[in-house]
Amino acid sequence: MQGEKLSVLFVDDEPYVLESLRELFARRYKVFTTTSGEEALEIVKNNNIAIVVSDQRMPGMKGVEVLRAIRELSPNTMRLLLTGFADVDAIVDSVNVGEVFRYVKKPWDVNELTAILLLAENTFLSKQRATESGYKTTTKTPDPVPRRITLPPAVLQELRRRQDAEEKFFQRVNERLKQGIAPEKLLENGSGKPKLLVVDDEPSVLSSLTELLADRYEVLASQTADEALRMLEQDVLIAALISDQRMPSKTGTDLLIEVSSIAPLIPKILITAYTDVEDVVRLINEGQIHRYIQKPWDSRKLKATIAEAVELYKERLVVYLAEREKFGRTFLEYETSVQDAEQERQEDKPEKIELASKLKALSEVRKKKL
């Protein structure tokens, strides 16, 4: 059924928060709510859930634990962590355990939360098209969804930025394919080893990582973020990027975010001796970090993390290429326009103003409780 809504699940131990979220999003989505992490898993098992938004601090299962379990049950479901706490462990775990799409702080801005859900929706639809292509099926078939959606200008701008980066990236990939290289071999160079790019301003760290990883990979080393960007410009099919955080001139966070405009699919791993909460949140929301690892690292776990990242990248490349062959561009196949988005916002404006006031008041009440 062409007009059927996508399903969204909200998990929060405060019933009044769930009531407000349902009221805000029921017009666009089929909304499920629960105050229990265990019940959330049952909902995901029995329904095709496109997006899950979970609070972090709840009785029983914490939000990160819920998202981790949902990732195993339904890998294509988009996962968002929503919390009012500056919880360092939760933020780091949301990267390394839950693999969240976005991290949203309470009290949230209604327009920002709406835009994030729309971005998650578009990404889910992209995954759905890959599933429909028959090349890769990682979860059960989602509910039928409309082919035409209207998006706010800010969301359209973000999607178009992603699409432009993808188009440039795949132009470079097609050059390799024309040389007769099979999609599954794109990340391997002449030696048969995938390339890794390691960035750290300490030569001793670069030497240690090169020695550790040289048996399975061709390791490229750089002491500056700018040099690393130039290396990626020369070869966009580096299999993974591993970067330190605190470096002169440009931080690892800035590097990993900027890399997305050159190699949008590359797995990005941050290795650092510091836990910079705001930077990790920024990486989740802008850079799409694959893992966050603290120094001193465990060699066995680091090698396993990199191996997992490289295999995931290989799979994603094959799927994306197959998807593009069948559907064309990965993002924004849908007909959208600023005029449609503006009209939709104007229609929703009175309702959203009222809901925004209500949500703001509820958030303030909860902040006082905390």
Measured between the Cα atoms of the first and last residue, the distance is 44 Å
Secondary-structure element pattern, one letter each: EHEHEHEHEHHEHEHEHEHEHH
Major beta sheet summary? 5 strands, parallel
What structural category characterises the helix and strand content?
alpha/beta
Q: How big a fraction of the residues is strand? A: 5-15%
The protein's oligomeric status is single chain
Q: What is the CA-atom radius of gyration, in angstroms?
A: 21 Å
Rounded average pLDDT: 77
**Could you name the CATH topology of the largest domain?**
Rossmann fold
The percent range for helix content is 40-55%
Q: What is the CATH homology-level superfamily of the largest domain?
A: Response regulator
* Helix run count: 12
- CATH level-1 class of the largest domain: Alpha Beta
Unreliable parts = 135-149, 329-342
What CATH architecture of the largest domain would you give?
Answer: 3-Layer(aba) Sandwich
Number of domains: 2
Q: Count of DSSP E strands? A: 10
Organism: Candidatus Thermochlorobacter aerophilus
Protein name: Response regulator
GO biological process, one term: phosphorelay signal transduction system
Pfam family, one: Response_reg
What does this structure look like?
By secondary structure, the chain is of the alpha/beta class. It has 2 domains: 7-146 and 345-369, Rossmann fold (3-Layer(aba) Sandwich); 184-323, Response regulator (Rossmann fold), CATH 3.40.50. The protein has helices spanning 15-25, 37-46, 63-73, 88-96, 110-133, 153-177, 203-213, 225-234, 252-259, 277-287, 299-327, 338-369, and strands spanning 7-11, 30-34, 49-55, 78-83, 102-105, 195-199, 218-222, 240-244, 268-272, 291-294. A 5-stranded parallel β-sheet has the order 2-1-3-4-5, sandwiched between helices. Helix 5 (110-133) packs parallel to helix 6 (153-177) and helix 9 packs parallel to helix 10. The model is unreliable at 135-149 and 329-342 (pLDDT under 50).
